[in-house]
From TrEMBL:
<dbReference type="InterPro" id="IPR048300">
    <property type="entry name" value="TACO1_YebC-like_2nd/3rd_dom"/>
</dbReference>
<dbReference type="InterPro" id="IPR049083">
    <property type="entry name" value="TACO1_YebC_N"/>
</dbReference>
<dbReference type="Pfam" id="PF01709">
    <property type="entry name" value="Transcrip_reg"/>
</dbReference>
<dbReference type="InterPro" id="IPR029072">
    <property type="entry name" value="YebC-like"/>
</dbReference>
<keyword id="KW-0805">Transcription regulation</keyword>
<keyword id="KW-0238">DNA-binding</keyword>
<feature type="domain" description="TACO1/YebC-like second and third">
    <location>
        <begin position="79"/>
        <end position="235"/>
    </location>
</feature>
<keyword id="KW-0963">Cytoplasm</keyword>
<dbReference type="InterPro" id="IPR002876">
    <property type="entry name" value="Transcrip_reg_TACO1-like"/>
</dbReference>
<keyword id="KW-0804">Transcription</keyword>
<dbReference type="InterPro" id="IPR026562">
    <property type="entry name" value="Transcrip_reg_TACO1_YeeN"/>
</dbReference>
<feature type="domain" description="TACO1/YebC-like N-terminal">
    <location>
        <begin position="3"/>
        <end position="74"/>
    </location>
</feature>
<protein>
    <recommendedName>
        <fullName>Probable transcriptional regulatory protein QYB97_01250</fullName>
    </recommendedName>
</protein>
<dbReference type="InterPro" id="IPR017856">
    <property type="entry name" value="Integrase-like_N"/>
</dbReference>
<comment type="similarity">
    <text>Belongs to the TACO1 family. YeeN subfamily.</text>
</comment>
<dbReference type="Pfam" id="PF20772">
    <property type="entry name" value="TACO1_YebC_N"/>
</dbReference>
<dbReference type="GO" id="GO:0003677">
    <property type="term" value="F:DNA binding"/>
</dbReference>
């Protein structure tokens, strides 16, 4: 599957841990998911996915509850879900997902981030075809064989099952996210090290040191933008 998911997660965690910026982004994402359907994760699958991911990032319950209560309260605050595609140094590929209440502001900020860090914006579809939408769930205290048995018994398909450090990571089609999750829960597993719907590059590229430094600055700049929810790319950032 290319880059190890744990390495990706650890790099993000070391940068994002316990920051109000991350919590604010999750609060917005939870609010939007709750507004789009029932504010109950048992009947709102989109909300359920966001809440599972929030748990793996240790988002405080107070942040989660506040966002859901805001949605229940009938707030008229609205956000657009946007996707930008672009190229970083040496033709590297980047996808940026955003939630915004000001499309013009977000577009200008994302474009500036690319331009100032050796990249440029692309048109819709210029990059996404090189990525696969993927459900990624990770569990501890299980072997690959045990995970495979759990999924087989539940008649759930997975693209791949990989041991990565102390966790077993399941890669599956996006529409299998809840089926994989439910299979684990039926087997007594309720905690996940990772629970994401993400975009994984079909092929990773390595950059020379100077370009890699510039690329990392591009990703950091994008992730620091208030409206940016997720940044996906095809660059191997190393261990």
């Amino acid at each position: 599957m290319g880059r190890k998911w744990n390495n990706i997660k650890e790099k993000k965690a070391s940068k994002d841990a316990n920051t109000s910026r991350v919590y604010a982004k999750f609060g917005r994402e939870i609010y939007v998911a709750a507004k789009q359907g029932e504010p109950d994760p048992e009947s709102n699958q989109a909300l359920k996915v966001v809440l599972e991911r929030a748990k793996t990032y240790s988002v405080p319950k107070a942040i989660i509850d506040r966002a859901i209560e805001k949605a229940k309260g009938g707030s008229d605050e609205t956000y657009d879900e946007l996707r930008y595609e672009g190229f970083g140094p040496n033709g590297s590929m980047v996808i940026v997902d955003a939630l915004t209440n000001n499309v013009n502001r977000t577009a200008a900020e994302v474009r500036a981030a690319f331009t100032k860090n050796g990249g440029n914006m692309g048109v819709s579809g210029s990059v996404a075809y090189m990525f696969d939408a993927t459900a990624v769930l990770g569990v501890e205290d299980k072997t690959e064989e045990e995970v495979m048995e759990i999924l087989l018994e539940a008649d759930v398909d997975a693209r791949d099952i990989v041991q990565e450090d102390d966790a077993v990571i399941v890669y599956a089609e996006p529409d299998q996210f809840h089926a994989v999750q439910e299979a684990f829960k039926q087997a007594g597993v309720t905690e996940f090290t990772t629970a994401e719907l993400t975009m994984l590059a079909q092929n990773d590229v390595s950059l020379p040191e100077d370009s890699l430094t510039q690329f990392e600055k591009l990703v950091d700049t994008l992730e620091d933008l208030e409206d940016v929810r997720q940044v996906y790319h095809n660059v191997d950032l190393g261990e």
